[in-house]
Amino acid sequence: MDIRDAHFGSAPASQCFGLRYSADRWFHFCKEQFHRLRTRTWNETAASMESASQSPGKQRRAAALQSATPFGHGAKGPIPTTSQDIIKNVVHDFYGSTWMMKMLEGRVPRGRRGGQELSASRNSSLENRVFMKVPHDHSSSPRSMKMLEGPAPSEARSRQSATLHQNRIFIKDIPQGGISILIGLMTFLVFLQPAIASMGAGAVVLVNSQAMDFSEFRQNLEPYLIQFGVPYTVQDISQKPLGTDLQDYALVIIGHRGFDLPRRFLNAEGEHQLLTAIRHGTGLVSYDGLLVAWQNDKPQQPYRFMEEIFDFDYQPPAATESITIGSATEQAGTGASAHFITSGRSTPREIKLKASLKIPGLRVRKRGEVLASAGDHPILVSASYGEGNVVLFSTIEWSRPDVKGRIYGLDDLIWRSLVWAARKPFILRGMPRFLAFRVDDVSGFGKESNQHLGWIAPVNKYGLKPWLGLFIDDLKEDPEALKQLSRLTQQGLATASIHARRWKDFFYLEEPLWTDLLGRNAAGRPWPDEKIESNFAEGEAFFTRYGIAKSKVVIPHFCEFSLNDFKGLANWGCEFVGVLLQPGHGWGMSTVSAGPYLPNEPAKPTNSLDPVYIADWLTVPGHPEYEHRFFNFVVEMHDIAGYEWAPSGVPVEEAIRRGVEETRREWDSLLPGVLFTHESDHIQHLSPQDWDHILKGVVDGLQDYHPIPVTLDYLSQYLRALNTSKISSARAEPGTNEILLEFEGSADLPTRFWVFNLDRGRITGQELEVEAFQGKTRFKRPVSSQSGSDSAAVVQ
C-alpha cells in the first residue's frame, strides 16, 4: 500500500489535508514541489519561520528545518521519489519518532502477518482508525528504521497500545499534536510555491554549433521534429551551458553526432545536471552514436552519462545492408509483446537498404533493450534511469536517400521514441488519420455499371469522397457522366477540377510529349497568353454550364504547369496545387525542392521510385506576387506498386495489400493518408465486383487506425494551417492534470494535437482540437490518462 491510499477516518488522506486533488494528483504534485524546493536555499525559509515567532520551541523547530539537508544544496543521499520519502526526510529531523517512520513505510500486501501495511479498516468497530502492522523483528525488514536517539513524547504509550492491539498502531495512539504536525508539513510542501507548479510538456534540443557534425541536426533531425509537430526549443551548449532548467522539460534531445567529443562545453557539472533531470523523470533521446573514440585499438569514452545509463561495452564498427526491427525476444519468436517504440508494425521485420550503412561498435551488457540492430550491433536501444526513460540511436544515416530514405517504414521509430521517452503528459501536434482519395485522368470510362462515373458509388458507400482530375473533352461526350458529376460535387460526395482535355491533349500548356534520352518531357512550352486566357474562360464556362462545383485543388496532367497559368488559377479561386515539378519544367526533371523533407536532400527526378511527400508553398519563378499564394501538397508511395496505388492487373488480394500498405506507411510516418490512382490506367479496367471487393478490403484493413475520411480540398487546407501555425509553448499542471498550450501564427480551420499520457503503465494518446485562430491563442483544459470521447485512439 501507498500513503496515497490511506484513509483518515472515512475520508481519503487528500481530503483530510484540505486538498481538492485526487490522491494521485496530489502525490505527483507534492513530489514535483519537492524537486523544485530542493533547488532553493532552505535558509531563507527557516529564517522567515524563525522571525514569525521567537518562542524557544519554535526556534528549535526552525533550526531543525534549517538543518534538514535533503532540501538544501548540500543534500546527501538519494533524492526522495515517493510521498513517504518526502515526508520522512522532514519528519526525521522535525519530530524524530519511530511510530511516524513506521506509518510512512507500510507496503506489504494485506493479510500477511508480520508485514507492514497502511490501510483503512473494513471492520465497523475500526472504521474511524488507520492501522499499520508492525513486524515483530524490525531488523528483518530492509525498509525498517532504527530507533532514533531520544524517544519522542508518549512513545512508551504508543508501544504499549501496539502490544494491546496485536501489533497494530492506531491513529488514536499517535502522540498528541502529531497529526497536526503531519498535516501542516504536507500542506507546506504542496502550497509553498504554487506559482511554479507547472512543468514543461515539450522538448529542448541540445546542439553544439562548434561540432563537426552540427549540420546533421538541420539536415536529418529537425525536419522530423517539424513534421511531427514537436514543441521544442534549441539550446546551443557552446553558448549556454546545461543547468537545472533541464528538469522543466518533458524531453531532452541530443540533436546530432559528435555532440562534444573534445569536451569543450559538456563538463562534469553539465553531465550531472543531465543525469539529475533524467532521474527525476525527464526523458532523453540521443542521436549521437559516437560514444567512443579509438586510440591504438582501445576504446576511449568521452562521456560519462551514457556509460552510467547503459553500461555499454565496445566493439569495432560494422557495415550492414539491412536493419532488423524488434527486440531479441521478438526476434527469437518467444511471443513477447512488442515495445511501444516498435509496436507500430509487426516484429521482427527487416528493412533492406539501398547501400551499405556503417554502424558504431556498441554492445549492450546489462542495462538496456536493443530494439533495432544490424547483427550484434545495436541501432536503437532503450533503457530506464531513475524515473526517466532514455533512447539512443547509434545512427539515423538510414534517413539519407542514398542509404534508404525517409517514409520507407523507419520514420515511426523516431516519433515513437520521442513519445516513449518523454515525461507524461507530452504534446505532439502530429497528424490525424485523415484518408483522402485522389483519382487522375477521369473520363467516365469503365466496365458495366462502372461507366459514366458509376465507379464512384462504391467509393462513397465505403465513406470516401474522391477528388477527380477531369479530362473535360472526354466528359463533354458523356452527358450521363456530367449529370453524375454535377450531383456528386453539389452534394459534397466528390470534388473536381480540370486535369487536361484528353490524355494527349493538355490544358495548361502545349505538350507534344517528346522525351529525351533520360525520359524527360523536354519539349513542353507555354500557350500564348491569349490562348491560355481562352482556356481558363472555357474552363469556367464548363463548370457553370454543367453545374459542377469547382475544387480549390488543381493538379495538372503530368504535374506540368506553365509560368503564365497562375493568373487564371487565381481568378478561378484555386488555393492548392499538387505538383512534383517546378512550374515550367517537364515530367522526368528534378522534383521541386519543397518542405518538409526535400530541401535537405539531393535533387531527384520525378520518375524516381522513392516515396515523396510535399506540404509547402509553391514558388513560381519570376513571379513574387504569387509568393505564399498556392499551397502545394503531394504524398505518393512510389516504391510499393510503382508510382501509385495500382489496383488493376493483379489479384484482388494484392490490390488490397497495396492500398493498405501505402496508407499504413503514410500514417505510421505521421503523414496524411491518400489513396492515389488513375481511372485511365486502372479503374476503367476493373469489373464492378472486383472494384467493390478491393475498396471494402482496403477500408476494412485500415479500421484499426480509425481512419477519418476527408476530401482532398479539406486535407490541403488542414496541411496549410499546420504550415502557418505552431505550438510555441506546452506546459502541464501536475496538480490538476491541466495542459496549457500557446499557439502562434494562423489557422483558418480547427486543428488537432495529441496529448500522450500513462494509464497503468500503458501509453495512451488523446486527440484534442483547438479552434481556428489568427495571431496567438491559448488552450487550457484538463486531460485524462484514459481515452475519452474526444480521443481518436489509444496508442498501443
Query: What proportion of the residues is helical, as a percent range?
Result: 25-40%
Number of strands: 34
Provide the low-confidence segments as ranges. 1-29, 32-174, 190-196, 788-796
What's the overall average pLDDT, rounded?
80
The first-to-last residue Cα distance is: 28 Å
Query: Taking Cα atoms only, what radius of gyration do you get, to the nearest Å?
Result: 32 Å
Class of secondary structure makeup = alpha/beta
Strand content: 15-25%
Strand order of the largest sheet: 8-7-9-10-19-18-17-14-15
Helical run tally: 22
Largest sheet: 9 strands, mixed
Overall geometry comes to: elongated
Structure write-up:
The strands form nine sheets. The protein has a nine-stranded mixed β-sheet with strand order 8-7-9-10-19-18-17-14-15, with helices on both faces. Strands 21, 22, 23, 28 and 29 form a five-stranded parallel β-sheet that branches. A four-stranded antiparallel β-sheet has the order 6-30-31-34. The chain is built from 22 helices and 34 strands. The two termini are about 30 Å apart.
